[in-house]
């Protein structure tokens, strides 16, 4: 009988081989992979296989484009995510959202906990829920733990948008979508009006018009 680890490796290799030098299909809300708890990565893949998976995930994230991608979003129940954020050119938006450039990195078996009680609410979207965005109140500062793709330990405190990205991607590994945490009255289509709401440095006009609270 094939072991669970062997089945997971076979599935991963099929996804990697199908993507070749291209990208993997991103599964959408309703796919069971997005609602399952990902398996901890404990060496199910050889080093070159892991590197190939990470490369596919980076290419897929950039092509979408997005600032993060978790393995369940390409149908793999593995606790691995990639993140990368070029930042924004609008200085006011960058300041209010504390959105700084995040270099490409890999998170293996990541976990987070609040570093304090402060929360911030901003619009988020998700590659697995295309066409919509909603405000999510998240911890402003979190302690991130886990490993990188080499097995080196991660233990750091992140603030602002980098902390938001980590929370969003780590939630994917727990079977949680951003909509589960969202202010549903803020939900907006990515049309002219919705994009206007989401372009505010802080969604105060959207809060007033749609009737949802923002953290003080």
TrEMBL record:
GO molecular function, one term: peptide deformylase activity
Cofactor(s) listed: Fe(2+)
Record-listed Fe cation binding positions: 126, 168, 172
Cofactor note: Binds 1 Fe(2+) ion.
UniProt key word Repeat: no
Gene3D superfamilies associated with the record: Peptide deformylase
EC number: 3.5.1.88
Keyword check for Protein biosynthesis: yes
Catalysis: reaction(s): N-terminal N-formyl-L-methionyl-[peptide] + H2O = N-terminal L-methionyl-[peptide] + formate
GO biological process, one term: translation
Residues annotated as catalytic: 169
Enzyme's top EC category: hydrolase
Keyword vocabulary terms for this entry: Hydrolase, Iron, Metal-binding, Protein biosynthesis
Function per UniProt: Removes the formyl group from the N-terminal Met of newly synthesized proteins. Requires at least a dipeptide for an efficient rate of reaction. N-terminal L-methionine is a prerequisite for activity but the enzyme has broad specificity at other positions.
Entry's family note: Belongs to the polypeptide deformylase family.
Protein name: Peptide deformylase
């Amino acid at each position: 009988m094939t072991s669970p680890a062997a089945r997971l490796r076979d599935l991963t290799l099929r996804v990697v081989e199908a993507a070749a030098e291209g990208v993997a299909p991103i599964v959408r809300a309703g796919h069971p992979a997005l609602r399952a708890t990902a398996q901890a990565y404990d060496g199910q893949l050889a080093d070159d296989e892991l590197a190939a998976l990470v490369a596919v995930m980076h290419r897929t994230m950039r092509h979408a484009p997005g600032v993060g991608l978790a393995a369940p979003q390409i149908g793999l129940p593995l606790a691995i995510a990639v993140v990368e954020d070029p930042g924004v050119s609008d200085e006011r938006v960058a300041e209010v959202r504390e959105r700084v450039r995040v270099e490409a990195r890999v998170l293996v078996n990541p976990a987070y906990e609040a570093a304090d009680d402060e929360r911030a609410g901003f619009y988020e979207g998700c590659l697995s829920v295309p066409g919509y965005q909603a405000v999510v109140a998240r911890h402003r500062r979190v302690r991130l733990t886990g490993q990188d793709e080499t097995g080196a330990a991660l233990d750091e405190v992140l603030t602002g948008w980098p902390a938001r990205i980590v929370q969003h991607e780590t939630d994917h590994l727990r079977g949680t979508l951003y909509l589960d945490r969202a202010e549903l009255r803020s939900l907006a289509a990515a049309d002219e009006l919705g994009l206007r709401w989401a372009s505010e440095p802080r969604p105060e006009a959207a809060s007033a018009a749609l009737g949802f609270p923002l953290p003080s």
